[in-house]
């Protein structure tokens, strides 16, 4: 059974929607920050009901500053690349010439997540911690810096 959120002394500090960048598409999560806990969950009915709620106690939480790595660096080797959503790429992100339609299919580079055409993704490469067999990557691997072939 769920624990009640209305406890004496508990104060709502803020709330809002954050977007989790998943491989297939971004997903919205509703967050509620109280003075002692952080609650988040999936939005089922707009601002009426939430499911899969998680509660994180803040008693042992520590904040630390992290340097901004920038958006152009490749992800850590142990994580799969976040895919650019299909709807955000009308053209190939490598050559810029191929326009996607029913005949020209979209592909994703498994190393950097960019949406690319078949002509720009003729290579496969085994990426450690992602797959035991070779997977589709950009032909610009190394040039684009999405993965090292060393």
From TrEMBL:
Pfam families per record: FYVE
Record-annotated FYVE-type domain positions: 86-139
Keyword Zinc assigned: yes
Keywords on record: Metal-binding, Zinc, Zinc-finger
Keyword Transport in record: no
BP GO annotations: endosome organization; endosome to lysosome transport
SMART domains: FYVE
GO cellular component: early endosome
UniProt GO MF annotations: phosphatidylinositol binding; zinc ion binding
Name listed for the protein in its UniProt record: FYVE-type domain-containing protein
Organism: Heligmosomoides polygyrus (Parasitic roundworm)
The organism's taxonomic lineage, starting at the top: Eukaryota, Metazoa, Ecdysozoa, Nematoda, Chromadorea
């Amino acid at each position: 059974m769920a624990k009640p959120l209305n406890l004496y002394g508990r104060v709502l500090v803020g709330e809002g929607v954050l977007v989790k960048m998943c491989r297939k598409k971004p997903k919205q999560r509703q967050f509620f920050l109280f003075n002692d806990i952080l609650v988040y969950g999936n939005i089922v009915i707009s601002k009426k009901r939430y499911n899969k709620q998680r509660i994180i106690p803040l008693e042992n939480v520590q904040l630390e500053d992290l340097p901004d790595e920038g958006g152009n660096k490749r992800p850590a080797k142990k994580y799969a690349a976040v895919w650019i959503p299909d709807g955000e790429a009308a053209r190939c992100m490598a050559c810029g010439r191929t326009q996607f339609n029913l005949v020209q299919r979209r592909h994703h580079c498994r190393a950097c997540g960019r949406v690319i055409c078949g002509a720009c993704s003729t290579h496969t490469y085994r990426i450690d911690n992602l797959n035991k067999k070779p997977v589709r990557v950009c032909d610009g691997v190394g040039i684009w810096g999405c993965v090292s072939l060393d």
